[in-house]
Amino acid sequence: MSRRRSKSSSVLHRWSRPAIGAIATLGAINTAYITATRLLGSETACPTEGCAKVLSSPYATVFGQPLALFGLIAYIVMAVFALGPLAINPTEKKQLRIDLENKTWLLLFLGSTAMMLFSFYLMYIMVTKFVVPLGPEAVCIYCIASAFFATAMFVLTLMGRAWDDIGQLLFSGVIVGLITIIATLAVYAPIGQPVAEAYNIESGTGEVFFSVEKESSEAEIELAKHLKSVGANMYGAYWCPHCYDQKKLFGVAALSEMPYVECSPDGKDSQPQVCQDLFTKIEKETGEKAGFPTWDVNGKYLFGSQSLEELAQASGYQGPQDFKQ
């Protein structure tokens, strides 16, 4: 019995580093895809609208950058820690390899501890802020995959070698865990809170997803009024980052004049049936599937965020056009 256990441990210790490296690589691919779609302004492939809401929410952005970008960096670092020492020839540079393995094992443990705890917090956010109010459709497959990868790396790091001082290891883990939790709560504390003197874009329950703080010039205000006067409408969703980009171009004062139809069923003053009827009409007439945002200007359909010059031209606007971009 003890021989079998010893053999199993030996196999686990031998393959733990390659396994951690492989998992970190999968995590890097997962987060690289999300990062690329966010930075390029394209849509992340999601099986449900709820999943898209999670990836477009304020919780998916940190310090003005996609959260996935930081995850990508973390996974790359973990892959380097796991696989780097294996590139050292154990015959020619045995001591160097041993030293690197000893140092990187601790770094792997601390890194996977922080990543796992942060992932657990994100799972809590996903469930409480999205799945509970919206149902199972708000499950984010990319988020679950990342949490699984982080947890798997932690388990393999903990069990993948014979640690000399478990007490010291656990103490280090507790310290890193506390730092991770405190830093996470500090970063996310302002999310969902309205910003004073800003145009706050809210869900139907009043949770703030985005805040437009840019001031409007006379040109943006007059264009917004003109669009309303000619019966133009922007169709979008409160959680849509591209809709947010469009609204930012108008600024705070102009947004109170800009014609807008909320399409998300759980949005504020939403009109989902109006949106559905229009999108069905667009698909029949043009063969194109409308997304957010979509503009209906003088019977012409404009897809995606438009420059204010394009909206002015499409609507026949003749007022001041010194727009603040």
Automatic annotation (TrEMBL):
The UniProt record lists the keyword Phosphoprotein: no
A Gene Ontology molecular function term of the record: oxidoreductase activity
Alphabetized SUPFAM superfamilies for the sequence: Thioredoxin-like (SSF52833)
Record keywords: Disulfide bond, Membrane, Oxidoreductase, Quinone, Redox-active center, Transmembrane, Transmembrane helix
GO annotation, cellular component aspect: membrane
Residue span, Vitamin K epoxide reductase domain: 13-161
InterPro entries noted in UniProt: Thioredoxin-like_sf, VKOR, VKOR/LTO1, VKOR_sf
Presence of keyword DNA-binding: no
EC number(s) stated in the UniProt entry for this protein: 1.17.4.-
Protein name: Vitamin K epoxide reductase
Membrane-spanning ranges: 20-40, 60-84, 105-127, 139-158, 170-191
Enzyme class: oxidoreductase
Cellular localisation: Membrane
Organism: Acaryochloris thomasi RCC1774
Membrane topology: Multi-pass membrane protein
Pfam families: VKOR
Protein family (similarity comment): Belongs to the VKOR family.
